[in-house]
Amino acid sequence: MPTSQQFEESTLLALLSEDSEFAFQLLFDRYRNRVYRIALLYLKSSALAEDIVQDVFMKIWSQRKTLPEIDTFEPWLYTMTRHFTLNCLKKLAHEWKARSTWIRDSNKFENTTDHKIRNAQYRDLVAAAIERLSDQQQKVYRLAKEKGLSYDAIAAELSLSPLTVKTHMARALASIRLFLQQHDKEFLLIFIGSGLLL
Q1: Which of 114, 142, 152, 190 is 20–30 Å from 78 (CA)?
Q2: Closest C-alpha to 34, from 2, 56, 67
Q3: Measured between alpha carbons, how far is 190 from 62 in angstroms, rounded to an integer?
Q4: In the chain, what's the furthest Cα-to-Cα distance?
Q5: How large is the angle between the packed helices 46-62 and 162-183, nearest 10 degrees?
């Protein structure tokens, strides 16, 4: 026989499948701290753990139509949290390797004219990539990367939800990566090495 919590959960999932933002907010309030603690345990970074929270709940929202088919929501949620956390660890390992390679190689040439020219070209290319973003993505990107604001601070400044800010930032970074890949893989490594991906 289902417990009261399971019954309440099944009701919330049914409402969520019908696009209820209220049900989504209740699930978010109930589970965000648990998801955060799991991510923090492995990532040792509050900023990255917050990113995992946003990723997990973005996934919940995108899959809301199928959520009522889940028998037990909590184990499913924890499995998804571990999945996102492990993917984040793999991505960080890959980016740190690329960053280390670029820094090692670039140090050999940092005082050369060619290096200075490449840096100028890189700045111009990143500026061009940013100009191609939507107005909202540009605002979010500049506030995060140039002013160093957190997603919550950006959300307050732009009157958006933190989830929307996270979505805009993810799309902006993906667009810039793609633009740099299309132009020069070396510029992509500079982009990684500069810390702009994090």
Answers
A1: 152
A2: 56
A3: 33
A4: 74
A5: 100
Tokens of 136: 């909202």
Instruction: DSSP for the chain, please give it.
Output: ---HHHHHHHHHHHHHHTT-HHHHHHHHHHHHHHHHHHHHHHH--HHHHHHHHHHHHHHHHHTGGGGGG-S-HHHHHHHHHHHHHHHHHHHHHHHHHHHHHHHHHHHTTTTSHHHHHHHHHHHHHHHHHHHTS-HHHHHHHHHHHTS---HHHHHHHHT--HHHHHHHHHHHHHHHHHHHHHH-HHHHHHHHHTTTT-
- What is the tens place of the pLDDT at every residue in 27-54? 999 999 999 999 988 888 888 888 899 9
- The full set of domains in the chain, from first to last, is 4-88 (1.10.1740.10), 109-193 (1.10.10.10)
Token pair recorded at residue 66: 């199928």
Q: Please report, rounded to a whole number, the percentage of residues in the chain having pLDDT higher than 70.
A: 75
Residue type, 69: E
pLDDT of 168 higher than 80:
yes
